[in-house]
Amino acid sequence: MQLDDLYRRVIMDHYKNPRNRGLFEDDSLKVELNNPTCGDRITLQLKVEDGRVKDARYAGEGCSISMSSASMMTESVKGRTVEEALDLAGRFSRLMQGEEVNFDDYEDIEALAGVNKFPARIKCATLAWNALRKGIDEEERQHS
Ligand code: FES
Ligand code: FES
């Protein structure tokens, strides 16, 4: 199916040409999370200033789904307010539950829609977004 091919291309593009991969060389907020199913791990760094995600980077090893999802997630949240980033995370959860969700503000994410048919793969795709939630929680704890 043409659409599937397109989606696969988008996923492979993020996997082979990752955006925001490699950590900052400073002490920006850092969170680590692993996928309990396979043990793969992601490290996420966020620079949050004035309630906005100024920058985000990640490192880790994992399958193409998890790594491309991390690339998309970091790219999509950069420059957004914390609320907007959490809204994206919420929409991603709904996408993984099989809902039709609009990602006009970062269309590449829609390429992961088909993943919802494979429960083990949902964990792969969701890893980066769970790391984002954990990072924002951590940030709010440090500044409250
Ligand atoms: Fe099996 Fe990710 S846990 S593909
Ligand atoms: Fe480990 Fe996908 S198989 S994150």
Please tag this protein with its features:
3 strands, Sufe protein. Chain: A, single chain, binds FE2/S2 (inorganic) cluster, alpha+beta, 144 residues
Give a summary of the structure in a few sentences.
The protein has 144 residues and is of the alpha+beta class.
Structure explained in plain terms:
It is a single chain. The protein has a single domain, classed as Alpha-Beta Complex (Sufe protein. Chain: A), CATH 3.90.1010.10. It contains 4 helices and 3 strands. It has helices spanning 2-16, 64-77, 82-96, 119-142; strands at 29-34, 41-49, 52-61. A 3-stranded antiparallel β-sheet has the order 1-2-3, covered by helices on one side. The mean pLDDT is 95. The structure holds FE2/S2 (inorganic) cluster (2 copies). One FE2/S2 (inorganic) cluster binds next to helix 2 and helix 4. One FE2/S2 (inorganic) cluster (FES) is lined by residues 35, 38, 40, 62-63, 65-66, 124, 127. Residues 7-124 form the NIF system FeS cluster assembly NifU N-terminal domain. This is SUF system NifU family Fe-S cluster assembly protein. InterPro entries: NIF_FeS_clus_asmbl_NifU_N.
